[in-house]
Each structure stands twice: as C-alpha cells, then as structure tokens.
Amino acid sequence: MQQFLAVAAQASSNSSTAAPPAPPLRSRPPRREQPSSVVKEATMADEHQELTKAFSGLGGLGVEENALVSALGRWRKQPEKRSQFRQGFPGFFTPSAAGGSNVTIERCSDEYVKHLKTEFSRFKNLMVLWAMHPWERDARWAHRALHKKHHPAAVLVELACTRTADELLGARRAYHALYHRSLEEDVAYRLKDKETSLLVGLVAAYRYEGPRVSEDLAKEEATALAAGGGAKPQSELVVRVLATRSKPQLRATFRMYEKISGKPLEEEFGGEAPCMREAVRCLDSPAKYFADLIVEAFKDGADKQAKAALTRVVVSRSDADMEEIKEAYLKQHGAKLVDAVAKNTHGHYRDALLAMIGK
Amino acid sequence: MATITVPQVVPSPVEDAEALMKAFQGWGTDEQAVIYILAHRDAAQRKLIRLAYEEKYNESLTQRLQSELSGDFQTAMSYWILDPVERQAVIANSATKCIDEEYPVIVEIAYANSPAELLKVKQAYHALYKRSLEEDVAANATGNLRDLLLALVSTYRYDGDEVNSGLAKSEAKIIHKAVGNGSITDHGELTRILGTRSKAQLVATFNYFSDEHSTTVTKALLHGEDPTGYTRALRIAARCIADTNKYLVKVLRSAMRSSGTDEESLSRVVVMHAEKDLRDIKEEFHKRASVALEQAVAKETSGDYKTFIMALVGSH
C-alpha cells in the first residue's frame, strides 16, 4: 500500500507546475488571482488530487463516495480528462502496450483493485456489524480469529477480557448456534501453542461481576506473582489468576503488584507471551487498550488487521465505554478522537464512525 | 422422574410454617413432624414455606433447623431445605474447601447438570459467595487435577447433537495413545478432550475407542495409579459421560457398604436427585445390586436420618 501513496503523491505534485504543490490530505486551496492558464492547470491538478484521494490514493481509510460521484458528473463526455487522470495516478494504473501495437493503455493494477475492494467495503462491513446482535458479532470475530490465517489471537483476548461475563457467555451461546461446537473446544483444539491454556481459560471464564474485593487476597496473589526476585512470574500462576478472578479483584492485584515489584505486571511479559501482556492490559484498562488499537489503525504501514480493528472497536464499544475511550485517547495521544477519525478516514465510512463515536 | 411424594391436598405455606414452629417448641424437636412436612414438599413449596416462616417468626428457617437438628439428619435436611440450584452451589463450595479428597463431587456436579443448569449453579455461587466457582476450584486444587477440574466447571459445552465423526476417530486415537499402558503420557490432550468436547461428541469418541480397542475408555483408565487424583477424576468423568446414572449407582453402593456408611455421599446423591431422576437411578440400582434402594438404605441407616432418606427415596 505504501507504494501507492508515495507514487500518487509524487504524481499529483508533478502535474501541477505553476502553482505550488498542494500537500496531501488538505482540502482544496482557496482560489487566488492568477493568469487563467495557470488557474486552469492548478484546478486540473486539484481535481486530480481530489479524485485520487477519493479513490483512497492518498492514505486514510474508506473512499470519498460523494467526490467520486461528482467527478462522474463533471467529466461526463470528457474522456480526455479521464485519460489524464489515469496517467496521473500510477499507483492505480500502469501504462502497458496494447497487444503489441504502438498504442499504450493505462491498465488497472490488480493489486490496487483489491485494495479498493477493502476500502469500498469498510462502510458496508461497519453497517452489517452494527445491525448484528452483539453476541453474534463477537462469535463471528472469534471464529474468524481461529479459522482464518493471519488473524492474531489477540482478538480472542480482547473479546474474552473486555466483555462482561454475560456478554462473553452470550457470545459463546451464539457460537454454539452458529458453528455447532463450543468456542472453548475450538480454541483448545486450534491453538496448540504456548499460550493455549491462557486463551482457553480466558474464553471459558464466567467471572463474578460484583464489586467485592479482598485486599488480603490481592496482596497474597500479588506477592506470589512477584516472588522469585527479579524473575518473571510463573505462567501457571498467572493463567490461574487472570482466568478466574473478578475484574475488580484483578485490578486490586495489579496495583498491589506494582507497589511490591516497582513495575506494572504487563511489562513482565515480552514478545514471547504477547497474549498474556494483552490480557493484563485489557483487564486493567480496556479504554486505554482500545484507544491504542485505534491509533495503530491510523499509522503509516498499518496492516489489514490493524485497520480492521478500527471498525471493530467503534462498532462494539459505541454503546459501551466510548466516552472512556475518548478520554483515554485524549490523554494518551494528545488529540481528540473525533478529530483523528475525521482526519484519517473518508466518505460514508468516516460519517458512520463519527456518528457512532458521538460528540 | 422424581421420587418424593407430595400430598394431594397441600396445607398452605403458613400452616406448614406454624406446624414446623410447633415441632420446634418444647423439649427437643419433633423430628417426625419435620420430616412429615418437609420431605413431602417440592422445591417451590419449600421456598414458600421458608418465606412464610421468616415473615411470621422473624427468623431464618434454615438456621432454626440447623440449631434444632443434629448429625447426619441435620446435614441432609440443610441441603434439602435449599433451592436445587443453591444446594449444588453450597455442596460445590464445601467440596472446594478440601478439594484433594472431595474432587469427585465437583466432577459429579459438572456432569449431572446440563450446560444450562450448570450455568445457573455458577450464578447462584456468585450470589452466595461473592466469588466464582472457578476461582475457588483454581485456588484450591493444583497441577493436572486442577486443569481438569477447571475445564470441567468452566466450559460452556455445546449442547446439541451434531457430531464430527472424523474428529471422534482421531481423538479416540489420541486418548488411546495418551493413556498408554497405565501411566498417562499426555495430560494436556486428555484434559482438552474431556474438558471441552460436547457430550454427544464424547459419546461418539468413546464408541470409536471401544470399537477399535475392544475395551471401554473407563476400563483403559483403570490401570494407572495416581496419587494426585487426576486419573480417578478422569475415570469419573468418563463414567459420567458414558452413563451418569450408572455412576451414581456406584456412588450409592460404595456409600452403603456394611463396613460403614458414607452418609455424606448418600445424602448428597439422594437429596440432589430426589426431585429430578432418582426413580431412574433406583431402577439402575436394583439391576446392579439386586436389591431395591429402599432395602439397602433401611439396612445401613438408622434413626431420624433413616426416616428422612427413606421418605425422599419414595417409601413411607
């Protein structure tokens, strides 16, 4: 994807010779008093850039549907304009000899069309997910995480740790109905690696949801976790505690741990136990976790899963803890969530996200 | 089918509460009267009696019974007076306190209930103890036994009939390999299979196993001796999957050996199933032991306890 953006940005700045090149992702510059030919070229360049941006050529998620439609209208019966656009967008179209003759056509890049498919369907995916029952949604995400390649187990950790006990149970019920097996058996069977016992424990949990916390127990378990001097906590103990204790109890334990050992529990787990680290983060502060996921989706070079996380987080948390997520986002990343979303997404997708995030 | 008998015309809960208070008053307790009432009311009726008693006399019927009665009779009655779901939560909780000996109770509760019923027990546990059953099991058990028990109580099993026969075949092979010639080699896989697969899937798996190896999974697990209790827990699980009632009959028979009666287990099985399916268990008992359950109970128990258990089992 990177190459599309770089080439497109290059091309759009090349095609505007007289006027200064407009930076990507800015709206059209205000009209200035200039000779008409220069104005004409500048406008053409702007139009190209807008259309390139609308086709998701300048980064950001989603496509600018309205800009696309208005370009259709404006350029009706002007094939030369379309032709110039194709020449000016090398990420989308590459010149190619047409069957051995001297005529070249700019042919569509298959890779880019695939990319467009994803971008065009972001809005569709969001709407379908929004309409689904939350239990079915979670069950389908869990199933995908288990059965499709390149889907990280982190999604399972997210589902298991950020949903309430009854929501998680509901998702497991929906999983029965959809797939005729239990989520627990599929996780146990399909993820036979180091962190399986943690994942099975997390998805099978039916935690006590009340506020009662035993400070003595928190101290006892934090001490047990911190035992062993500077060594990492034993994984068996961690799994048992993380998978069975109630969330308020866990938070008390985490605080106590940091007091005893001087650093937060999540820092004890590095790259060799990613799910354990994610689990601690999700259980301790889901809003912060979600805010971080959103920021990852906007980064340059974010992969397909990171970008899909944006839809997942907004749709699943819109009714739940979106206010806390907005606060966490502001605190962690110094910007308002609505501004970041408006800046980095396009079209109906952007409008839908903003509507779900709220003021 | 239940075995308790409820009279055709049932007195109102207030009348029953008054009769119970009358039985408590004066010197000693009229245990016969208490049995006569409580052993012949179903769960809904008992609940109404508890409420009426508390409203009228401003004290908990459960606590009054505990102070008025004693011994095995009192234990059995304190289970009986509760709601079926609460009862199992209470039984599970006391089992977690000495889980190294009482783990068979946990396995029994995990299997005697459908997934939906087990969920209700867990919810009642939350309400009663402000903790989850899983936490208490995990905190008190250790090692492989803990992994197995935790899987059994946590998993919300698929409850349907769909079975994947390819999977059943391959997992039957895994079980056979893991059980080996006595000592278990792969605890992880055994726990995974028995702890997460649905009942229907496990039955199919066990069938493939016995077809292939001319012996049942239960028998294959008989050889290993394991001080941690893991193998025994697995055997109980396997037995319950194959035929829960048959397993319960075994518990009853072991409880009533002439060398000494295990009233805890006898009370537990009778009280837990009297309103549910004790009739089927009685039939199975008769088949296996060649005597009726009532006769065995009559022979091995005595006093008020005997009267109470006999009433629950379905004979006067």
From TrEMBL, chain A:
A GO cellular component annotation in the UniProt record: cytoplasm
Region annotation (Disordered) ranges: 1-45
Keyword terms, alphabetized: Annexin, Calcium, Calcium/phospholipid-binding, Metal-binding, Repeat
PROSITE patterns noted in UniProt: ANNEXIN_2
Protein's name in the database: Annexin D4
Family annotation (InterPro entries): Annexin_repeat, Annexin_sf
Biased composition (Low complexity): 1-19
GO biological process: response to cold; response to heat; response to salt stress; response to water deprivation
Source lineage: Eukaryota, Viridiplantae, Streptophyta, Embryophyta, Tracheophyta
Any one Gene Ontology molecular-function term assigned to this protein's record: phosphatidylserine binding
TrEMBL record, chain B:
Binding site for Ca(2+) 3: 298
Molecular function per GO: calcium ion binding; calcium-dependent phospholipid binding; phosphatidylserine binding
Highest taxon, organism lineage: Eukaryota
Pfam family, one: Annexin
GO cellular component: cytoplasm; plasma membrane
Keyword Calcium in record: yes
Residues annotated as binding Ca(2+) 1: 24, 26, 28, 68, 260, 300-301
SUPFAM superfamilies to which the protein is assigned, alphabetical: Annexin (SSF47874)
GO biological process, one term: response to cold
UniProt keyword terms in alphabetical order: Annexin, Calcium, Calcium/phospholipid-binding, Metal-binding, Repeat
Full protein name: Annexin
Protein species of origin: Lolium multiflorum
Classification lineage: Eukaryota, Viridiplantae, Streptophyta, Embryophyta, Tracheophyta
